[in-house]
Design a protein that fits this description.
Elements (H helix, E strand, L loop, with lengths): L1 E6 L9 H9 L7 E6 L15 E9 L7 E2 L16 H12 L4 E9 L8 H21 L1
Parallel strand pairs: 1-2, 1-3, 3-5
Antiparallel strand pairs: 4-5
Helix pairs in contact: 1-3
Length: 142
C-alpha cells in the first residue's frame, strides 16, 4: 500500500497546493492508496503510515525565481525538530527508528513565491493536474 500526503494551509493561497492535489486525486480510483490531507505534518501521522511501503509527500516550497516549477527534491534536515513543523524526512526517520519501517518515499513540491493568494490560477491548476497525472501514472506502474 502507498500513502499520498498533501499538506499545507488551505487558507493561504498557493500554500494549499498539497491539499488541492489530494482533492484532485479523490476524484479518481487509485489502487491500494491512502489519501491524506493535513494542515501540517505532525508526529501522529506516523501511526497511519505503519502499513505502507511507499509514502509520497506533496507540498508547496518557497522559491522566488521558479514560480510554478515542479520538483522532486529532498534537502537534508540539519536537526530533528519535533515541535511546530516537521519535515517529511523526520516522518521517515521516525518510521525507521521507532517502528523499524522503511518505506520508499518521494516529495513533490510546487515552487511558489506567493503564499497569500493564488497568483495565476491557470498555472496553479496546471501544476495540480500535472502532479495528479504523475501520481496516477505511478499507480498504474505499481
Amino acid at each position: 500500500m502507498r500513502a499520498i500526503i498533501g499538506y499545507g494551509n488551505e487558507l493561504r493561497g498557493e500554500d494549499s497546493f498539497g491539499a488541492d492535489v489530494i482533492k484532485e486525486l479523490q476524484k479518481l480510483s487509485l489502487h491500494d492508496t491512502k489519501l491524506i490531507s493535513m494542515h501540517q505534518l505532525t508526529p501522529e501521522i506516523v501511526l497511519e503510515l505503519l502499513e505502507v511501503d511507499e509514502v509520497i509527500f506533496v507540498d508547496t516550497c518557497y522559491d522566488e525565481k521558479n514560480h510554478y516549477a515542479l520538483a522532486c527534491l529532498l534537502k537534508e534536515q540539519s536537526s530533528l525538530n519535533l515541535s511546530h513543523h516537521i519535515s517529511p524526512k523526520t516522518i521517515i526517520y521516525m518510521l525507521n527508528t521507532l517502528y523499524d519501517k522503511k518505506p520508499e518515499f518521494l516529495i513533490y513540491s510546487m515552487m511558489s513565491a506567493c503564499f497569500e493568494k493564488i497568483a495565476d490560477i491557470k498555472k496553479y491548476n496546471n501544476c495540480i493536474k500535472m502532479v495528479a497525472k504523475q501520481l496516477v501514472f505511478r499507480d498504474t506502474d505499481r
